[in-house]
Amino acid sequence: MDLFPTPNRRAHAIALGVFLFGCVSLVPSAGAAAENETGTDVEVSRSVPLPQIAARSDELRNALRDATARLETRPEVVSIETGLPETQASIEQQNAELETLLASLPALEQLADAERSWLNRQGDLALWRKSLAQRASVVESEIDDLDGLRALWTATLAVAEESEAPAEVRATIHANLEAIAATRKTARSSRSKLLTLLNGVAQEELIVSDALASIGSARATIRARILEPDSKPLWASLLVSSSVSAIPGRVQKSVTADFDEIASFLKRRLRGFVPVALAFCASLAMALTIHTRMRRRQPTEELAGSIAVFARPYSIAAICTFLAGLAAFPLAPAVAFDLVGALLLVPVVRVMHPVIHSAFRPILYVLSALYLADRVRDILDGVVLLERTLFFAETVGGTAFLLWLMRPSRLVALTADVGRPTPGIGVAVRVATAMLAISALANLLGYTTFSKVLGKGVLQTAYLSVLLYAAFRIGVTVLLVVLSSPRARRFRIIETQGALLLRWARMALVFGLGLVWAGNSLNAFEIREQVIGTLSALLATPLTLGTVSISLGDIGGFAITILTAAVLSRVIRVLLGEDLLPRLSLGRGVANAISTSAHYLILLGGFFLALGAAGVDFSRFTILAGAFGVGIGFGLQNVVNNFVSGLILLFERPVQVGDAIEVNGLLGEVKRIGIRASLVRTYQGAEVIVPNGNLISSEVTNWTLSDAHRRVEVPVGVAYGNRPADVIEVLRQVIANDTRILPTPPAMVLFRGFGDSSLDFEIRFWAADYADFIQLSSDIASGVYDALAAAGIEIPFPQRDLHLKSVAASVAARLNGSSAD
Fold first, then answer.
1. Is 524:535 a contact under the CB 8 Å cutoff?
2. What is the pTM of this model?
3. What is the enclosing helix (H) or strand (E) of 586?
4. Cα–Cα distance measured from residue 298 to residue 296, given in angstroms and rounded to the nearest whole number
5. Residue 105: helix, strand or coil by DSSP?
6. 189: nearest Cα among 72, 22, 75
7. pLDDT by residue (tens digit) across 192-234?
8. CA 794 to CA 758: how far, in whole Å?
9. How far apart are CA 28 and CA 44, in angstroms?
10. Furthest C-alpha separation in the chain
11. What does the pLDDT look like over 597-623, one tens digit per residue?
């Protein structure tokens, strides 16, 4: 059922909105009044004591003076009050122009310009409404305070009259009540003015909303009829002399209207150019600084490919300022973007020329020429015939150039210059050629809307690709310069993980610019809303399997959340473990424990967030968790044991990363302590995965738990006949000359006893580093050999005495070196 008749729907809607707004605005006052009515006895009992009336009267005057100052009309309210009539007249005129435009079968570009203009109006009115509502809230609060003061002093007057207070005291109370009433009258007047302004702004917002709805409906209608002819064939229009002769006057009128629109926009948004000017200064300073620093130092091979970008700092600043302007004024008039884009053409070409491959430079030049022609055509969009002719020339010129580019020799040159097989280039060229050719033919036959959507989609996508590629090269160069600077190299994370950080940053930059390119390209083809709607419906489509229902959006949200948590946890782990925590005075292994704990906590939190993003009901999840706990208790005992053992290793730290351990006959260095197992690299080079449970339940020899010192024993044997004291002296001289031996505990030379073939000695000393004890032991043994040889002390061969009991006399004689006859 329709609430209002069709002709008066807008007026009734406005009246209803104003009525509801007034009701909402009056709710606080009504509540306050009800509170006063129901609490009369309380207010009467709450009165100013008669001895304090003089002092409290002074406080009241000061409070009323402050309230009067707060109730003064603010400059923003004065600006809205003076600007609202002009805005109402402008909106009325703009609404009439919109009705004329909608009645004349407008083009999609005209509707887009009109929508942008109305969205600007909507934004201005929203700011006004917010400012007025905040001010009205302040005034309403002042009125509530004044109502409380009036009740207080009314009760005081009643008490004074009842107690027959002196006339002067009652006169003071009356004067206070009159001052309160005057201030309250001012406040109510201010509130009335604010509510009136709010009412006017609300009415204009309803008009703007209706206008935007009408534009949206018109755009939907045009899109639905995009494959129908909407104008005469181009040759038929050119043959009409009256149409051609009217072009100069229409051009003048169109240009005048465009510049009037720019002037109006600048008048409304002049303050918004301050951030843009600051962006230009900041980007210019950055470009000049980077250019100067790159000239002072020898560029690395990685940086050499992007160093030419900042050889033109003013062009860099212009591009950065344009991007800042896009963010600051997304709803600026289209003609403003056309003019700025035309001026930006020179900086983009100057920046792109030295950094793109030579085979792509003709594409850059042709795109620049087409872009300049396209900007002129956009400015002349009010002259339909001239605008169609220029667009036809653009599409024909673009098609001819792409046909030239499609020659096999040119495509081979493109792929060869890139340096790797890129079949996508040839496909993109062929598709763009076909689309531009179809656009030119459709324009010629009178399918103007379809022609513009197709042709402008191709051209604007190409322009945007060039601009975003320039932004990408600028961003990558800045990253390279920052990461390769000496100050950045002071951070260990950049020194050790610089390549990884650069790769992640490049991926993030490509992803962000890719989203911008995709969104604007879809908008250029007038299909962004349809694609987004289709994707939203597809992602929201439930996939049901039994009692479980999940959508592609839930799966995507789960995957993205898990990926984000994994990347964030890795970054935090590296940042804490390699840069921040090592700078603190922490015990050995504490930094690794903290960084690893943060890593697992972020992963765990990301997992639960991912479950929430996937729409998992945690009340059911607790039941599943209990079931999983039973299953874990029976089937995953070993996994849980290793996991808990990993936590014990992490916090108790009996084994730490970098320790030299010996477990179950395995000797090596701990490289990583994981959630289930640890990685031990043996000194032979093998990497052994050791379950964490083995490191907790088995006997583990940790050679470097408290320190890296290692005692070394070198056994020495000398021939019988040497004095032990002389040998000990020689050995002591050998170890006394080596600085790698720790002085404490002192080195020792021991005479261990009489061996079968030698007198046995042993050298004992301590090495400062466990990793060096093998080499040190070898060096000491070599020195011992040289020292003994120099002292004439023999190192014997193994000796054995052979006793023969039953042997023939002739054999015994021969063994003794004599013959028996």
1. no
2. 0.62
3. none
4. 7
5. coil
6. 72
7. 999 999 999 999 999 999 999 999 898 888 888 888 888 888 8
8. 10
9. 22
10. 169
11. 788 788 888 888 887 777 666 665 565
